[in-house]
Design a protein that fits this description.
Length: 236
Amino acid sequence: MSTPELAVLAVTVAVAAFVQGGSGLGFALIVAPVAGILDPGMLPVFVLASMIPLNAYVAWRERASLDLRGAGWISAARLAATPGGLALLWLIPDRGLGLFVGVATVLAAGLSLAAPAFAPGRAAYVAAGAVTGLTETATGVGGPPLALVYQHRPPAELRSTVAACFLVGEVASLVLLFTTGQGDPGDLGRAVLLLPAVAAGAWLSRLVHGRLDARRMRLSVLGFALVSGLVLILGR
């Protein structure tokens, strides 16, 4: 990856960390399409590894608002579905991964925009966890199902619970990817290299997360995801 491309990725990561730290979602929806355009081989390891410190920070920062019941059901289903995500990654050829990420991003953003309000129960938690396990392990994008479940809950509850669920799932996915030979240590190196960008975005989100208009932020993230996903699809 050239220096200009690395700079673009660093700015993207910082913006994505700020958005997710403030709104509770958006990191993978922003970073995965850009990474897919720059180098599809970075997916999903780079995105998963980059999110771990961010989600650990957000989950700790807003731990008082964590929905333990929902997080438990989501995480159990997420872990159970992780091998299925690995199977998807095996089935998708390297040259098709960018296209798959683009399609998954557009579908996820579209569903998030179109979904009506509802009160989540156990079935919704399990379904969201299972879909997240499949898509996040295969592509790094897993936020929209969780956003659908928590989109009408208080912002602090969404941020803390989604961060905790992501944290558990990302560690599980990375362990499985590397133990089965699907992970590239070089992608971990890139994630470590861009930790300052993650930290900068997370720190800025700390200053504004209580004052952000969550609805406008969510719509902006989903709009960016739709455009980025379409660029990936049309560019393949």
